[in-house]
Structures are given as C-alpha cells and as structure tokens.
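To assess whether the prediction recovers the assembly geometry, we first specified each molecular entity separately, as shown.
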Amino acid sequence: MNLRKYLKVYKKFLHTSLASELEYKTNILVDLITAILSLVGSIFLLSIFFQNNGYIGGWKFEQALIIQAIYTILNGITNTWFNPNLTEIVKHIREGTLDFVILKPIDSQFFISLKKINPSGFLEIMLGFFLLLFCIKINQINLSLSFLSLSLITISCSICILYSLWFFISTTTIWFVKTWNAIEVLRSFLYIGRFPLNSFSLSLRVFFSIFIPIAFITTIPSEVFLGLSQLWEILLEVIVASVFFITSRKFWLFALKFYSSASS
Amino acid sequence: MISNLINRKIFTLLKVQYSNMLEYRVEIALWAISGIIPFFMLNIWTNNDLNESINISDVMLSRYFLCAFFVRQFSVVWVVFSFEEDSLMGKVSPYLIQPLNPFFRYFAQHLAEQITRFPFALIIAFFFFIFNPESLWIPNLGILLLSMLSTFLSFMIQFLIQSIVACLCFWTEKASSIERLLFIPTLFLSGLLAPVVSFPAYVKSWIYWTPFPYLIDFPANLLSGNESNISGGLSMQILWIFLLFPLFKKIWSEGTKKYTAMGS
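The predicted structure of the complete assembly is given in tokenized form:
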C-alpha cells in the first residue's frame, strides 16, 4: 500500500468528476433546494409528533433535532460519495467495463467506491453542520476535547457502517446485475434513522440494532452529543463498524471470483 | 371505429408490458417492500400514544397507515426516469414517428406494473394482519370501489404532474432532479407519514387547495373508514386532472417542436 500514490489518484478522481458534474450548474441548485425542503419537511414531521407531547421515546424536541442534523450530514455523505459510485458499479458490471478496473494497478474497491463525487451533496453536509451547531447552542452543550474526539469517533463509525451497507448491496450486483430496488429498500429502512431509536417498539428496536444496525448510525452519535451515551455503546459501535467494514471488504473479494464479465 | 382502434392499441400495449413486467418479479417485490415506511410511522404513532391528541384510535390509525401503504403502492409513478433515459438514449425518436403518443406506452407500463405488484402488496398486508389481528376489517363493496377509483385518480394526478416534468427533458437534460424536488412535498404533505388531520392548523388552512392531500390521505381515509368528504375529495381530484391535462398537452406540443434527436 502506497498511501501517497492513492492520495494522488484520489486528487485526480476529484478533479475529473467535479469538472464533469459542474457542467450541470442548475442541477446543483435544484439539489440544494431539495435538500433544504427535505430538512424542513422532516422538522415539520417531528413538530407534528411533538405537538401534544413533550417527549418522544424519552427525547425532547431540541434533542431530537440533533438526530435530524446527524442524519442530514450522513445523507449528504451518501449523496456525495455512495450513491453516484453505486450507479457506476452497476454500469461497470452490466457493460463489462469492470475488466478495465480490475486490470488497473490499484485496489479495485478503492477505485470503484471513490471514483465519482457529486458536489451537491456537500451543500447538504453543510446544512447538517449548521443545524448541528444550532443544536449545540440550544442544548447548551459544552465543547471539550474528549467530547469532540468521542463524537468524531462515533460519526466516523456511522459513516463506516453506512458505507459497508451500501457497498454490500453494490457488490451483490455481480450476481443480480440490477440492484436498484434493493437500494430502495435500504433507503426506506435508513429513513427510520431520522428518529430516536427509543420511539419504536421493542421488536423493531431489536431488528434495527441486530440485523441492520441503523440504530447505531444516528442514535449513538446523538447520545454522545447529549452526554447520555454509555462507554459500552461507543465500544459496541466501534466493533460493529469494524466488523461491517471488514466483512464488506471480504465479500467484495469473494464476489470478484464470480465476476465473469459481460456476455461471456 | 376510432375508439375500437384505440382500445385494441391499449390492450396490446398492456399485454406486452405485463409480460415484460412479469420478468422482473423479484425487483417488483423489492419495490413493494421499499414502500413500508408508513408502517414505521405507525409504530412511532402508536408506541408513543401520539394518536390520542388527534382522536383516532390505535385500530383506526393502523388501518389508515395500511391503506396509505396500499394507495402508495398503486400510485407510484416513475415516468420521468423512464422518459429521461429514453430521451438521452435517443429512443424517443422512433416513438415519435408512431401514430400513438409515447406516454400511452409509459401509462401501460405503469398499469402493468401495478397488476404485477398486487400479489406482493397482498402478502405484505397479510403479514400486517398477523401482527395486528385486531385491525382486520372488510370494507363494503361501494367504499372499496370508490377508493379504487380515487386511488386511480391519485395515480392519474401524479402521472400527469410527472409527465409535465418529463417534458422538460426537451429543454434540459436532467429533468429527474426537478422530480426529486417535487417528491419532497409529496412525501411530507400527502399523508404518507402522518395523516393530514394531525397537521397543525396553519398548514391545514391551505393544504386542501393543493393536490397533495388527495394523493394519499383522501383515498386512504376513504378505504380505512376514517372520516372523509367523499364528494368533495373526488371532485377536487377530478378538478386537478382537468387543470393538469391541458397543461401537459401544451407542454408536449411545445416540446416536440423543440425536440432534436440526440447527436443532431
């Protein structure tokens, strides 16, 4: 592994895909409005839930906003990196151009998961950060070094889990070719990440912590922000994230053995 | 004679599209699963006793969300995405030569998909009743037919809106981002995530003038036996169709004049 080489290659990726995406400038504006409306919509929905109740699953409205902020950041990351690259993976496999990727003297997983970038997702990430700063203010959270490092760790673990889930589904393309609808299923499941885990019934809570760890993705980082999290939760998230990441890597290498190019 | 010809065309189109859709059973099943967000919302509502404040019992609310799921299943429209792809690939050109508006083709595609989707939706409903046996009910035939009609009208409204957006492909290359923008108000205001009755008064005062509550909330209320204004809702649906149809015809005739096949 030559880190410097990979950084240099990534710079080129950024350059080429930004250049091609910036051709559609109005598109980026439309995407920004979409992101803002989507955030307004979810806050509106949340306000309906809190209309006559002070607490949902033990969370106050101001606290639940943190979950929205983190969800928005993660959704922005999904739209910036995971979604455009998945589109590419499907195309590579359907048209057989994955051959060229495998032949390159570079790690194939690195290549296909970071090749593309969609700049309009950045705006969503920024939007999420602004909301997060606002939440820090209204919840009177004291910023300290240990708090910052803990929140950074948990959020990176969330990104790791999210990436692994996406990449896992992308990998199945090698067998199924069309995976759009599987992604739609994942997207609809991820939707519940907008709400505190405790607001669901026990059976759903178990399902979303064990089978699809969506619970970890937004709830634990938010708990870190509020100072409510237990150490074991953070440790568990780190373990889950690493297990998911390693499995997605292994699964990709396993799946490549079954790749037989197009029309052969 | 002319109507006979149109009937035959539509029947043939439907037959072709239905056999086409049957090939993609797995995908359609996954797509049906991706529509289960209303059930997650139901879980939040009943688990936190949020429905007490809007005077809807648990049973009625669960029926509402089940019906919302059904209405959504049979009013999903994706014509923008198909049309965008076809117009980028230049497939629209041969369609334009045929003595049939290409949107009939998409229309038949959607209807065929709904027929294919029906058994999967029934299976999901079956599981829903296993977990919530107390919410089982049988609507009377008149209500069932009326709600099928209003679901179809809701589908028509969404199909017309999306066809109008799809025609923007004649001017810009990426009309689908506009569709994603329009999807946000549809998601939050149509009643898929929360019944319109629960909306705060400042939204309820104007929302009934927009098409959104007639997309899901009205048909779902009708089918589930919740309070609904049958004649008012149906006439608003028809009114919106009458407003949108001339707009579509106008933009279609303008767009086809503007059309230049890709690469020319």
